[in-house]
Every structure is written in structure tokens, then in C-alpha cells.
Amino acid sequence: MNGKFYGIGVGPGDPDLLTIKAKKILDEVDIILAPETKSGKGSTALNIAQTHLNQDVEIIERKFPMTYDIDVLNKSYDEISNYIKELVDTGKKVAFLTLGDPMVYSTYIYLFKRLKCKGVEIETIPGITSFCAIASKVGIPLGENEETIAIVPSVYYEKGDEKFESILKNIDNIVFMKASGDIDELIDELEHTGHKEGSVFVSRLGLDDEVIENNIENRRGIKNNYLSTLVAKKYSSAR
Ligand SMILES: C[S@@+](CC[C@H](N)C(=O)[O-])C[C@H]1O[C@@H](n2cnc3c(N)ncnc32)[C@H](O)[C@@H]1O
To answer: 0.90 exceeded by the pTM?
Structure first.
């Protein structure tokens, strides 16, 4: 029997947001591989999927380094993708769980690219992205009529960064992912560009310690959790 690799998006937090297709695949696979970021912290993606898992499925949690060191990251992705290929070559169906959607700023992408090059059969099961779930929860339409949307993977940028400044100047709805740490400078910037009034900060949506803040001024001086997102809407198109 042929093995296969699946990338499964489990959505942002609420287990009920896992798709029926994801549930069907979870019922079929032999092994579930889940990313564990810090020792002892477990896997958020696995916790979300847990209630949907069969008791007899094998679960493997693998640590991924939390670093910007590209050599360390590449080494880790190489090792884990080689390991997945070995499992698939023995006929196993292996699912890698990922938060939100697998093709949006996810570790899965690095594994997917490597395994595709190695000729491994792959199927990616989309998930509900964090920002779509946030838009629904807080009631901010992300795109209406002619409005434009940008997804930005950081809240930090160098002064004069043309791409970032052009987005702030020109785009109606901006999703800032990875809004962890301190977002004071971004709040200042959003005030200048007219996005502040229509901004909402959301951390750990659908998880036990969810935070929703409609007045982003209240997030000044706070070191935000990694799973934090800021959705900003230009005033003319604000709620
Ligand atoms: C590595 S990216 C993963 C994105 C994911 N693949 C998606 O489709 O949403 C991590 C970022 O996603 C956002 N995120 C994921 N889950 C979230 C949640 N439950 N609440 C708020 N933001 C979340 C945060 O911006 C976080 O820094």
C-alpha cells in the first residue's frame, strides 16, 4: 500500500472550526505529526484537533526551533522532511497538523516544498485562517466592494521600508499577523494612516485565554502573546 503525506489545517482554535474533510483524513491516517514549539508546552494544533482523533492513531510531536537563524531552520526542516519521507516510503499515511490554513505563513510550507521535490505524494487540506475567523468573530468585513486587503506577516518594519509604507498608505484593510511583543509603534503609525479607529487586536482566538480588544490604545506597553493578530480598517471604511 502506498503511503501519503497530508497537510491539515485545523483552524485557529475552536475545534468546531475543523473541516469535515480534515476530520475524514484524520480518521484514515496512521500517524499524526504535530509541531511542538517549546519543550513542555505541547502542540496547540494537536490540542485543537484532539477531540477529533481516533484513539489508535500514533501521535508524534516534533520540536521546531523558534529562531530566525536560517541555517538552524533549514537543518530542522531537512531532518523532519527526511523523517516524513521515510515514514511515507514504508506505506504510512502521515498527517502534519497546522494552525489555521497550511498554505498561509506556516511551517508546513517548508516541509511541503521539500517533500514535493522528493516526489512524495501530498494532499493539502485547507483550514480556516486565523484572520477570517477573527473577522467573523469581531464583525469586521475584510473586503467589501472595491476595498483592498493586505496580509502582513509582522508588526515591525524599518523606517523607509517602501513595501510596508505603501501598504499602510494605500490598503483599506490590513491584517498584521505575528502581532506579538510590543505594538506601540504600530499603533502610532495606524493613527497617522487613519486605520486606528477601525482596528481590533485579537490574541489566541478560540482558545482558553482569548483576548479581544476593540480599543487598541489599551494594548500599549503590553508584551503580546505569539498568537496575536491586529486587523486594521481604514477610517472611511471603518465599522
Ligand atoms: C505562523 S502564523 C500561522 C498562520 C495560520 N497558518 C493561519 O492560517 O492563520 C502564526 C500567526 O497566526 C495568527 N494566529 C494564529 N492563530 C491565532 C489565534 N487563535 N488568534 C489570533 N491569531 C492567531 C497570529 O498572527 C500568529 O502570530
So the answer is: yes
